[in-house]
Design goal:
With 449 residues, the protein is an alpha/beta fold. Helices cover 37% and strands 22% of the residues. Residues 1-7 have low confidence and may be disordered.
Length: 449
């Protein structure tokens, strides 16, 4: 992985097919998508986009810029993953278990291995490499339960050049004893990490209670105290993922009217909060999430893999709840957000009249701008308008691939984008740029005929 210079990469005009969604397609329909078959993105020396559009016009406006000719490729905004687990790559593909058994039998034991610092360092490098290789340029990452592992992760994230928000995950029961903590220790370790890493380069800190199943009031109070003292921090956890989980929370917190109320009571629900899943919300919870300005990370592959249920997208939209997309590795089966977007489409289509009809414009919005808005980067990334940071993904079909065959017949941006959503995965990501600098390059990138 190439380390991105702090000030960005070299100034250039990047020529390729260009597709982005600068406006909300849920509000504006198909007109929200902008595309140029023979397009270009002009990137300034500070790593920001200063022009986008038809290639001949962009080149004429920047005649002295070096040209990077990648015609035959497709440029998209960098993908934004609103929920992915750093210490779970090794449990991808653990079949046959519902959520709570999957955690107890497969996931918690693997996460305990992050007590070994050398192991945690290797996993951090692998995890970040996989993000970049799959076109993810920004991510809200659910971290490890071990402070030393999180120090290692933040150091690796800083070196990667990616935009990463993460934090020490805390819990006080229902897990291996070595991963549990106390109220005092949870606050002290998280506060130290936040002080050291939040706002350092492209890094931010996220207050991260595991979920109400494994967090008592003491640990939740520690999280709430830090969130109140540092209101610029993100907050992330899990919510309403499975019916068994909801029943467990109800039994543990009989004085709270529902799952969301547990977090509300500790001051953890607000405009900087992102909750993963929310597959089984009440109407009242949806109304309160919307009123608080909180966002939900929709993780369709994970929900299907664990049999948790189908996300009620239409109910969230009608309630006014912001929704982004999360891969949720390792219950999610891939860090490829293009795969996750396809699963979101399939999930909603399978719901019939109760589903939310999703077009290619909706799916690209979820991959990019919706995620940026959810994790507090909506003014910085998410589309290719001038002034945005040049966080880009170059899709180039591998020679002889199904994607290459389909793109030969694709006419118009909807067909091109549909082919990418259906078929482009890690092998089709030729380059990933963050702030104008390359953070991932496939060995044969730029060799498309």
């Amino acid at each position: 992985m190439t380390v991105a210079p702090a000030a960005g990469g070299r100034a250039c005009v990047l020529m390729a097919g260009v597709i982005h969604v600068p406006r909300d397609p849920f509000a504006e329909g198909a007109g929200a998508l902008e595309a140029w078959d023979d397009g270009a993105v002009a990137v300034a020396a500070d790593g920001r986009i200063d022009d986008v559009g038809d290639a001949s016009k962009v080149r004429s406006r920047h005649p002295d810029r070096p040209v990077v000719d990648r015609r035959g490729s497709i440029v998209l905004p960098g993908f934004v993953d609103a929920h992915i687990h750093y210490p779970q790559v090794g449990v991808i593909g653990a079949f046959g278990l519902p959520l709570l058994r999957w955690l107890d039998e497969r996931t918690f034991p693997f996460e305990a291995r992050f007590l070994d610092l050398a192991f945690a360092e290797r996993e951090a490098r692998t995890f970040l490499r996989l993000l970049a290789a799959n076109g993810t340029t920004s991510a809200l990452v659910f971290g490890a339960h071990v402070a030393s592992a999180m120090e290692a992760f933040f150091a690796a994230a800083e070196a990667s050049g990616l935009r990463v928000a993460s934090g020490l995950v805390v819990a006080d029961h229902g897990m291996p004893a070595a991963l549990c903590t106390t109220r005092e220790r949870a606050y002290a370790e998280a506060a130290t990490l936040a002080e050291r890493w939040h706002g350092r380069g492209r890094l931010r800190y996220a207050v991260s209670p595991r979920f109400a199943v494994t967090c008592g009031d003491g640990v939740l109070a520690a999280c709430g105290a830090l969130a109140r003292e540092r209101p610029e921090l993100l907050v992330t956890s899990h919510l309403n993922e499975s019916r068994a989980e909801i029943a467990t929370v109800r039994a543990a917190f009989p004085g709270d009217r529902d799952y969301l109320a547990v977090y509300e009571r500790h001051g953890l629900v607000g405009p900087h909060s992102v909750f993963a899943h929310d597959v089984h919300p009440s109407d009242d919870e949806l109304a309160r999430l919307a009123a608080a300005g909180a966002a939900v990370a929709h993780c369709p592959t994970s929900n299907a893999f664990l049999g948790s249920g189908a996300f009620p997208y239409a109910r969230h939209r009608r309630a006014g709840v912001r929704v982004a997309l999360g891969s949720d590795v390792g219950a999610g089966t891939s860090p490829a957000l293009l795969h996750e977007a396809l699963q979101a489409y399939l999930t909603q289509a399978g719901l019939g009249p109760e589903g939310e009809p999703l077009t290619t414009a909706h799916l690209l919005w979820l991959l990019t701008r919706a995620g940026a808005d959810a994790i507090g980067l909506g003014d910085e990334v998410g589309d290719l308008r001038p002034g945005r940071a040049a966080d880009l993904v170059l899709i180039e079909p591998p020679p002889g691939s199904a994607l290459a065959a389909v793109l030969e017949h694709a006419e118009g941006p909807d067909a091109v984008l549909g082919a990418c959503l259906a078929l482009a995965r890690e092998g089709a990501v030729a380059e990933t740029w963050v702030h104008g600098a390359v953070v991932h390059r496939r060995s044969d990138a730029g060799m498309v005929a």
